[in-house]
């Protein structure tokens, strides 16, 4: 009998490992937790395709008696939704790209460049990340009002590029601080400049982490409400969350329209997440530095 046959026979005879009671309990808790998290989305799906009469008759948890797109059409027409989508995608995309670039450069200087006072700088960045956005509203309002960028999408791009890159710098600086010195010294001996070391050595290795930050920065900026609500006051500059809250505040939407608006508002971020799902999973699994 060949070695392959012996291994196959042993694998067949080997008894299966049974799950313990604790493992089954943990699995059950995870399933229950997942269902609880998906419940709001299920309610949105049920009510987004109902008519107002159907909602009033059967309630929020009843199945739709008839398929209706009136709620989605109402929100689509009232907010000029394609323009709101473009504004949100443009703003979130620029913030994600700029923040990743700024984070990587700043973290390279702090983690590998050995800047003096590195520990204090990282501590200040960490404290800045902990500062509530409410404390930033008035200073930011005065600053952007004085330079003429109030009620401009560029104000949101600048603000959140700085805020997101602060978190990215704090994360990446600790990652770059553990980068193998032998690789850096070998590149230096070969005559590589600091920019070449960053571009050809550090950046390719940290690409999974940067891809994770790119996805997170996009989604976080898309979902931001408080600062955009204070800075984007005209309809031409409002993002999707602001347009949704504006119509809700004006009592222009019933329950079915709100559900339809919420559904189509999360579709772009869901598509973005699905596009980068493999990259995101690979970045989390592989780790920051190989």
Task: Give a structural overview.
There is one protein chain. The chain is mostly helical and 290 residues long. The protein is 77% helix and 0% strand. The protein contains 15 helices and no strands. It has helices at 3-13, 21-48, 52-58, 70-79, 81-111, 118-130, 134-146, 153-176, 181-189, 194-205, 207-223, 226-231, 240-249, 255-275, 277-286. Helix 4 (70-79) crosses helix 5. It is globular, with a radius of gyration of 25 Å. The protein starts with a helix and ends with a helix. The mean pLDDT is 79.
SS field, number of helical segments: 15
Computed CA radius of gyration, to the nearest angstrom: 25 Å
Counted beta strands: 0
Structural class by SSE content: mainly alpha
Portion in helices: over 70%
Shape field: globular
Order of helices and strands: HHHHHHHHHHHHHHH
Mean pLDDT: 79
Low-pLDDT segments: none
Strand content: under 5%
CA-CA gap between termini: 42 Å
Could you describe the largest sheet, including whether it forms a barrel?
none
Could you list some keywords that capture this structure?
290 residues; mainly alpha; 15 helices
Characterize this entry briefly.
The chain has 290 residues and is an all-alpha fold. The protein has helices at 3-13, 21-48, 52-58, 70-79, 81-111, 118-130, 134-146, 153-176, 181-189, 194-205, 207-223, 226-231, 240-249, 255-275, 277-286.
Which helices and strands appear, and what pairs or packs with what?
Blueprint lengths: L2 H11 L7 H28 L3 H7 L11 H10 L1 H31 L6 H13 L3 H13 L6 H24 L4 H9 L4 H12 L1 H17 L2 H6 L8 H10 L5 H21 L1 H10 L4
